[in-house]
């Protein structure tokens, strides 16, 4: 081997080592963030919820006491904001929970179809279209509540990425070893820079976003021994979640 070839191989090895080091560092940063999130959720989650529940109850009582009160619109607004805060706490706790998830045999396609009216309503509000195409009804081991949350999160992200008259496509496919849930939007796609960040807690490009929707999805996938692939371009983005079939 010539000295030039040897030098080239050394540079290649160094480049691969640096790339591996970069991947490990990013994973460690992500792990640190999740650990911090878990501590925050465990410390303040339930304590914050208790006074919020009391305040919401009193607002509802005032609302029911005099439905024609001129302050009723303000009561509605405050209740909506309390519900939004409660949803954020749910997302915190969903990421932070590390306990064993109860998995039972179930069909992802059945869950998709049960959510169709809800997602359809959201699409109509935005003058968008919804297409459901379920090809596989094979059962995998899953937690129905978590899978419902994952589908809703991915669907909401897809709807928010589009402008009318775009179509959101949700469906399932099957290979010999897995069932694939996919959510495809016709938005402008995700830049390479954003792809490296979207799974990180608190990162968001939305004015009203919490940056927890996709991290929750990744956490749910991890609980199900599944993985998420992203395909994106100028014609849209597809999130594919790969669930292993029972052996």
What does this protein look like?
This protein is of the alpha+beta class and 247 residues long. The protein has helices at residues 3-65, 72-96, 108-125, 144-160, 192-195, 213-223; strands at 104-107, 129-134, 139-142, 167-174, 178-185, 227-233, 236-244. The strands form two sheets. It has a five-stranded mixed β-sheet with strand order 2-4-5-7-6, covered by helices on one side. α2 (72-96) runs parallel beside α6 and α4 runs antiparallel to α6 (213-223). The longest helix is centred in the N-terminal third of the chain and has 63 residues, at 3-65.
Topology:
Elements: H1 3-65, H2 72-96, E1 104-107, H3 108-125, E2 129-134, E3 139-142, H4 144-160, E4 167-174, E5 178-185, H5 192-195, H6 213-223, E6 227-233, E7 236-244
Parallel strand pairs: 2-4
Antiparallel strand pairs: 1-3, 4-5, 5-7, 6-7
Helix pairs in contact: 1-2, 2-6, 3-4, 4-6
Q: What's the quick description here?
A:
Helices cover 56% and strands 19% of the residues.
> What's the mean pLDDT score?
82
Oligomer: single chain
Largest sheet: 5 strands, mixed
Order of helices and strands: HHEHEEHEEHHEE
Strand order of the largest sheet: 2-4-5-7-6
Work out the helix count.
Answer: 6
Residue share in helices?
55-70%
Coarse shape: globular
Residue ranges: pLDDT <50 for 5 or more in a row? none
Q: How far apart, in Å, are the first and last alpha carbons?
A: 48 Å
Strand element count: 7
Look at the helices and sheets and give the structural class: alpha+beta
Percent in strands = 15-25%
Radius of gyration: 22 Å
